[in-house]
Amino acid sequence: MNRRPASAWRKLAACATVAALLLIAAVDLTGLGRPVRSARAQGGGPAVDWWVIAGGGAASSGGNVTLNDTLGQPIIGAASSGDLALRDGYWARCVAAAAVAPAVTVARSGADVVLTWESLIPNTQYQVWISTNPYFDPDNPGGVTPILTASTTYTDPGVAASLINHFYVVRGLNACAAASANSGRKGEFTFGLMPGAP
Description:
By secondary structure, the protein is α+β, with helices and mostly antiparallel strands. The protein folds into 3 domains: 7-53, no CATH class; 57-95, no CATH class; 105-188, Immunoglobulin-like. 12% of the residues lie in helices and 29% in strands. The protein has one helix at 6-29, and strands at residues 57-62, 65-70, 77-81, 84-88, 105-109, 112-116, 125-131, 147-149, 153-156, 166-173, 186-188. The strands form 4 sheets. A 4-stranded antiparallel sheet has the order 8-7-10-11, with no helix packed on it. Strands 5-6-9 form a 3-stranded antiparallel sheet, with no helix packed on it. A two-stranded antiparallel ribbon has the order 1-2. The chain is elongated. The model is unreliable at 23-41 (pLDDT under 50).
């Protein structure tokens, strides 16, 4: 009679324990997320609905190489109803209509400069870019960072009273935070008047 070594029995017991824990976890999860499709199988016995048990993911990098990995990717997809949206899964891709560049107007209000534009679908937010360089590029902003707003107006306080000129670009952002093209570039110019000879 051949006897299995103790290590083989330990491995078998460990596998059985893991299988039992997964089954228990699957049964317990039925009340946490999705409704159970059927309480009993066709034969009248207990049934467990299908479930995915998975972990998260992480990113690691070295030099100019970046690796995004996932431990047990759950089922992915997107669902929406009204103004609510749910994206399932670490690798779920955001899908939204492209953002639209707004048409911006600029006006002075006392010492302030006020930018206004229309609310455009599918924009959900706007980036307001401000620089003292008339040729600045939001795609290569250097030290310039945009101001985020859900409003369709932005007030730059006190700049009309400054002798430094300011320039503005506004971009729309869609629900996936993807930016539109640039709006038309606007600027404010302040010149000091020097007295001259009559």
